[in-house]
Write a structure and sequence with these properties.
By secondary structure, this protein is an alpha+beta fold. It has one domain: Immunoglobulin-like, CATH 2.60.40.420. The protein is about 25% helix and about 40% strand. The termini are far apart.
Length: about 130
């Protein structure tokens, strides 16, 4: 029993070490939301590689972070979805909270991220995710 338990502990420790090493090399970005603006207004990723994005809402109201093509934004400008939590490129961030999402774009290009709550885009709540060729 002792030998089996120590083997399990060793395997668990090895798994934690591999996970820690893997996450250290993962591409991460932080986007802060304050006064209904995104900071920074642009971030960079590499095509075909995931980027983990921390969305930190420092405002006392909820916001959304929608990233994608112009077609995606056209749909959201006229859409009625009040909350986003199932698609990595469409995230609702409640007031004074932080959410994480991981996105991967296969094609290089510029993808806008916008809060489509009424008036927020016109106020300047948008930015650009620059996806570079590998």
């Amino acid at each position: 029993m002792k030998r089996t338990l120590s083997g399990v502990v060793a395997l668990a420790a090895a798994a934690l070490l591999l996970t820690a090493c893997g996450s250290a090399s993962a591409h991460e970005e932080t986007i802060a939301i304050h006064y209904s603006h995104f900071t920074p207004e642009s971030i960079t990723a590499t095509a075909g590689q995931p980027v983990m994005i921390e969305l930190r809402n420092d405002d006392p109201i909820a916001h959304e972070w929608i990233v994608g093509t112009e077609e995606v934004h056209a749909r959201h400008r006229t859409g009625t979805e009040p909350f986003h939590d199932t698609i990595p490129t469409e995230v609702t961030i409640p007031a004074l909270t932080t959410k994480w999402t991981t996105v991967t774009f296969d094609q290089p290009g510029d993808y806008k991220y916008i809060c489509h709550l009424q008036g927020h885009e016109a106020y300047g709540m948008l930015g650009t995710l620059h996806v570079l060729a590998p």
